[in-house]
Amino acid sequence: MKAGDIITLLPFIALTLSAVIVMVAGTFHTSHRLTVGLTLGGLAWTGAMLAVTASRSGRQVTDLLLLDDYTLFFIGLLVLTTAGVVLISYGYLEAREEHPHDYYTLLLLATLGGVALVASTHFASFFLGLEVLSVSLYTLIAYPRSRASFIEAAVKYLILAAATAAFLLFGMALVYAELGTMSLSTLATLHVAGGGAAATSLLISGFALIIVGIGFKLGVVPFHMWTPDIYQGAPAPVTAFVATVSKGAMVALLLRYYRQIGVIPHDTVWIIFAAIAAASMIAGNLLALLQSNVKRLLAYSSIAHLGYVLVALLAIGRTAAVAVVFYLVAYFVTTLGAFGVVAELSGAGDGEAEELDDYRGLATRRPFLAATFAISLFSLAGIPLTAGFLGKFYVIDAGAGSRLWWLLIVLVASSTIGLYYYTRVVVAMYVRQPVELPEGSPAATLAAPTARSTIAAVLAAVTALVFVLGIYPSPLIRLLEHVVAGLP
Amino acid sequence: MILVALLAWPFVAGIAAWIVGRRRPEAARWVSVLAMGAGLVAVIVEWALKAPDFALAGHGPFVASVHVPWVPQLGISFFLAADGFSLLMVTLCYAIGLLAVLSSWREVTERVGFFHFMLLWTIAALVGVFTALDLFLFYFLFEMMLVPMYFLIAIWGHERRVYAAIKFFLFTQIGGLLMLVSILALYVIHGRQTGVYTFDYLRLLGTHLSLATATWLMLGFFAAFAVKLPAVPLHTWLPDAHTQAPTAGSLVLAALLIKIGAYGMIRFMVPLFPHAAFHAAPVFMGLAVLGILYGAILAFAQRDLKRLVAYTSVSHMGFVLLAIFAWNTLALQGAVLEIVCHAFSTGALFAIVGLMQERLHTRDMEKMGGLWLTAPRMGAMTLVFALASLGLPVLGNFVAEFLILIGTWPVSEPATVLAAFGLVAATVYSLWIVQRVFQGRETPAAIMPDLTLREAGMLAAMAATLLWLGVYPQPILNTVRPGLAALQRVAVRTTAAPTSAAAALLHTGDRSPDAAAPSSEEPR
């Protein structure tokens, strides 16, 4: 490792140090507000360091990490999203009077894990990043002590994530045993999937096990079982984090190596991914129809959305790579908005506002909150003027460019089903009369204005972004075209 | 720039109506009326100024256009252009918009500002749909309109409004998405052939496609437009949506929204895929005849007056579909006239049903009867529009359906004969309405006040329009002729593929209408 690599690694160092500072500050009984300030400061510092790295020429740091423009873009995206989650968490935790110093430390560490995942070029960094992310999440999910369901969700996530981590590790071991390398970029040059190396049974099992690990993290069918339970059980801000940062980092990694390995269309690996995509779109949208719990509904919808992302992933060409990343950005923005509303509506109660009844007549009770949620839902459904529309448009464009007609038909049919359950929530908010909420129900309570202001700020920002990306996407597209230029 | 103004105006007015409506509901109504009225005047002035152009048809088909890059990386541009057909549709949008605001003056009492916001945004998106010549922009507005329309039905509709609204949304959405796949496939194919990736309609026109590909792509477009029109068997959303929507919603649905189907087929589907469209024409004409007869028969079977009127729409739109696939000058002019006349005749019937429901709180015809005694003015008005609907000479619908039948005869004699039976059925169900509701035994429960001045004025204006169209439709025909002729040159019914000269001719006319040379081969 050269001395100059330290400078290249500054974003990582900044993020790690921020986590340490927040942790140390916590021992001095600092106020909640100061802790959040330190956390945001750390994230801003990390973001600023991206510019330093961008000015460096050699971006490969040892065998483990690569900080090219693609990685830097995703670090920026993950850091910004985490900042949104931090602001939502502030309002959410403030209303519940928790003592949340370690919460923010863990959030920063989880982000570090995601960032490492995006930058990894080696099995070791891949696995380390994944574990840092997962272990932080176990604790984050269980963090607020107000509800038993949080602990239940955390234990579920712990068991399943640990099991799939074992799968992943075993798969990596098998691949290493066969090829004698753990470097992802070397693997890519061997053209494993393209038939360059002999496809032995060891290698095939190794890759299959790795796909299990990746599929679990993405929450796609058939590895999706955890998604609804965790989405429902975890506190709303943490759910937002799981839905965005945790899944997004894995998509970023997958996109890079899927393309480097050079999977041949209609080859076995391709067909596996196509089947996963189709099954996710269908199962996600169909199962969401049955939900009366808004968080579970969003969980199933996220399964379907990852299916859409996979459709773009399977397409070839530069546009397809832009489509994946654009869809991801649109999905991040929209998801933050949706869970921000859930967090805000949960007020100061013990539980969360997650039943459809909590949303009945919201348009009359709290018109702005209802409008924000409706806009998020329409964006998820892909209605024009919103970011989600252009994302879906891009995905279909990528699919049409690669002639993935069957996948597109599945996408069209299943997303029409999707529209149905999104409109159910909208109907509840706009058409139904409000029900008399029982005393102490979370949706009936209101947090203090200071707590609500940060969530309101996030909601205003993401709603504005939803429209900006939906109406004037050119700047982002230009940036993305530059970012994916390094991918094959 | 007039097109941008006409598109932006209802958006702005809608926001204004919402804001002022939060305090004073009446203000929202007045803002909307003034906005729609001003827009109508503006578009009529524009029309009058351009009338000499249409008469001479020397400036190419497009009289106004705007072309600005929007998302250059994807070849998307903000491209609005209007020929006579588009201008006519925009005029119709504003006229119906004005009527819709007026007709909901009493009916809508809750969330008045929000209602007018949604109504005006629907109108705005419609104006855009009828002028957009970039396929992305067209699709964008086509889909965007669903949301306000959905809210109009779901919030202010009648007893089964949520069901109807969601059904409407889902049907249109799946058709729209299939069209989007087709649009993108066309975009990719055109890009591979020429190296230019663009959604510009005029550039996509000459794309070379094999018959099989063209047929698949055309079916995507057909899915979207047949749902809108609606063509049997994709019509089932329509009776529900029309019946459950508030009066303004039914008016906009019947007079404008379903016309997108006809407009889209004439403007986009047939010219983009002429070979495939004419190849499949017998099937579509069969569907059209089926729609005419099926709609008429189902109209008989209804007890719900509003549902009856809704089914007559299915029947009338069958005529339009028939005319489109006959694709000759007479039939197309008939189709355009039918679009306009149906907007007023059926729109007026929906308005009348809305007025009755306000007064009687029912739409059930069994509970009505002898209403002429208490409401003679309303009865007379209903009779006028019922006669228009059955195609009585002197009123516009007659001219339209007559032209369609004449135009269809040389293409398919059996289809023409069967379609003509639709006119017979129309006579029966139209008179049936008057018979059951206004004649017959008087029901004690059904006593209601007659039309007020506002209501009578509104209906009289619509009746006068129909009378004008029935007696002297020439201004309309003159206006739309150059545009339709240009489309016919692109898609020639008898030959297989469009001549590149025809596409080129259309090209010179678009961007700079003033610079284009007068075309020598304009038809009479």
Span from first to last CA of chain B?
30 Å
Shape of chain B: globular
User: Helix and strand succession of chain B?
Assistant: HHEEHHHHHHHHHHHHHHHHHHHHH
The value of Rg of chain B in angstroms is 22 Å
Biggest sheet details of chain B = 2 strands, antiparallel
Spans of at least 5 consecutive residues with low confidence of chain A: none
Structural class call of chain B reads mainly alpha
Interface with most residues: A-B, 29 and 33 residues
Question: Biggest β-sheet of chain A, characterized?
Answer: 2 strands, antiparallel
The total strand number of chain B stands at 2
Q: What's the pLDDT, averaged over the residues of chain A? A: 89
Tally of DSSP helical segments of chain B: 23
Strand order of the largest sheet of chain A: 1-2
Percentage of residues in DSSP E strands of chain A:
under 5%
Mean pLDDT across every amino acid position of chain B: 87
Class from secondary-structure proportions of chain A: mainly alpha
Low-confidence stretches of chain B: 495-524
